[in-house]
Amino acid sequence: MKDLVAVWVSAHWQEHDIGPDHPDIPGRVEACLRAVALSKVRQVQATRLATADELGWVHGPEFVQRILASRGTWDAIDHETLLGPGSVLAALGAAGCALDLVEQVVRGEIVRGVALTRPPGHHAERERASGYCIFNNVALAARAAQRLGARRIAIVDLDVHHGNGTEDVFREDPEVLVIDLHQRGLFPEETGKWGASLDGFGGSVPVPLAAGCGIREYLTVLEEVATPILRRHAPDVILVSLGFDAHVGDPLGGMKLETEDFGVLAGWAVDMAEEMCGGRLAMFLEGGYALEAVEESMGAVLGALLVTRQVP
Ligand SMILES: [Zn+2]
Questions:
Q1: How far is the CA of 310 from the centre of ligand 1 (A)?
Q2: Would residue 185 be called left, alpha or beta, if left means φ above 0 and alpha means ψ between -120 and 50 degrees?
Q3: pTM for the full model?
Q4: Is residue 123 among the annotated active site residues?
Q5: N or C terminus: fewer CB in 10 A for the chain?
Q6: Domain ranges of the chain
Q7: 5-306 belongs to CATH 3.40.800.20
């Protein structure tokens, strides 16, 4: 019997080590893997590295070459987006495992899954790495899905920060809808304000929320704003930027989601995918910096993904 759910992790995720004082420590993926080990979900170790051609689906050639030239050295894109000697390998591996996951989902080899992408991706713009992100993993997955025949894609970004990179990549693309719930006033500040396209046929729908929101507010937005827009877009696959930094215990975010609430959010995504696109759902790790919260919230997500919904 085929697996319903699987979790992908790159063989190279530990190579991205930019010091214990940086919030993006390898322990974040270790925490996720502990949750996977406690679940019934199959773990797949991916050895694939995204190629320069594949990265070119999302990023400009000069940007890609500038990052690849940093392989094996220390480099600072900005004061908080740092590359250690193994970081480019890890970034290529993260993008590669995102591609592996979305290809399996679109081809129907699994129904839904998670890629433990690290470094994360949703702040990476076409021409700029930022906010701990090097290559935009979820954007790359969306382009891969399109190349495999998925016409319309929906990306739902649940990280506490606005996914400015994903918005930048798909700004002009009517077939990729980006709905982004995030805390107002956090990094990157200048993007994510309310009032972008709401026509439901592609475009970006940033939903800035005040600090202190909990699951009641998240569900209200998902049910009253996101769900009708998703229905009008009628995606062939749903991708989720999965950040755990809206957890009440996270040191960077100011939201009040509890551990079990991440299972509720994942359950909503499963329901949307079942209703609209044969269940096809792929999630990509973004932020989340309180290790215990990451582990337990990941466990809640996996529990929701494992629930068998009624597939028509
Ligand atoms: Zn974040």
A1: 32
A2: left
A3: 0.96
A4: yes
A5: N
A6: 5-306
A7: yes
